[in-house]
Design a protein that fits this description.
Homotrimer. Pfam families: Hexapep, NTP_transf_3. The chain is of the alpha/beta class and 477 residues long. The chain contains ten helices and 39 strands. The N and C termini lie far apart (91 Å). The N terminus is likely disordered.
Length: 477
Amino acid sequence: MTPSARKRTTPLAAIVLAAGKGTRMKSSRAKVLHPICGRPLAYYPVKRALDLGASPVVVVVGHQAAQVEAALRAVLPDAPLRFALQEQQLGTAHAVLSAKKALRGFEGSVLICSGDTPLLTEETLASVVDARDKAKAGLAFATMTLENPTGYGRVVHSEDGKLALIVEEKDATPEERKIQEVNAGLYCADAAFLWKTLSKVGKENAQGEFYLTDVVALAAKGPGAVSARVSPVEAAGVNDQEELSLAGRALTRRIAQRLMRGGVTLEDPERFLCDEGVEVGPDTVIETGVRLRGATRVGRGCALGQGSILTDTVLADGVTVRPYCVMEQAEVRPAAIVGPFARLRPGADVGEGAHVGNFVELKKTRLGKGSKANHLTYLGDATIGDGVNVGCGTVTCNYDGEQKHPTVIGDGVFVGSDSILVAPIEIGEGAYVAAGSTLTESVPAGALALGRARQVNKEGWVERLQAARKARTRKRA
């Protein structure tokens, strides 16, 4: 919570405008649903408003309304969210007015921002709220200065220097278009003033829309309007795929800075991808090209090798992930080593000090403390005890075409290379499985299991085969 939120004496609500289609995205998906750092675009202004203490936050939806609501509720399940439908997109003032019913009875400040501004920070939102509180004005809004203000509403001052109005570009005179101070699309208004004033907004303008910016002129003539300068980088909206990519890179850089300030070593922050909300402990070293997704948690003193991708995965302290591993919904316990080129699928649980080597795949499998599966192995639906050695090429045959079956391997078992374990099967504690065995029955503790066919050597077989081939060739000729 920011100092602003702690000191505030009046309630704060927020409205996030997320009804548009976003035609410049050239996509069938609504703009605010496009993912950025693991979250939908609209998540970011909503989350920053929540962090500031806004309650409730009303999201105005329109295009793909049901999908937008479902996506935001999924990533913010416990947040005080409300949704308001703008059936027709008739302008920004009309969009805000659509939220009136959802805020019925609310008295206090209402923060208004756009759903396509992922780089807004809590501090920037607070600066606009604080500006209104300090001035006791009806409205505060954010402005920024641009060398090229094309496309933005210009902030016009009266002769005495006071705020007068915002003029949208299509309605601006040539002289007004030279103004470099522009509207950043972020507002804070007194609720009573807002609803009363929105009813006075008309659509006598070049686009025939109800402009929210018209409220500025009405506030300037009444309870007062004040402005707060903000960073153009933060206030920039995402309108196309290129801007989405640039915003994602900027967000990732912020995440990287936070991690480095917390003691994480990033070999190359510019070639590191990380979702919002991922946690990494100090003294962890992350090599180039690593991607951390979803609810991933990485402990202290870990090493993450180049090109590895972790999704919703938990690494305990001291874990080594060698290059090019892929993990999803897995858990790796302290001091374990994974990779290179290993795959941990959902339900994989690698025990303390265990080793999972190159081209080994685990699915819904627990590998016990100190156990090793170092080469070219598939272990699925298996429970493997402590101190087990799983030889190269071992496969648990867990699927019979209709259902999955478990494999249970006790502590201290040695499984020889190229063994096929046909589930359901249990191998008792301390047993040995001879290399090259195919086992279909359980093995008692301490036993040696051999599942090989008897070897037969046919001497002279190759010579006879070659003679037969030559005879066939002569016959065809």
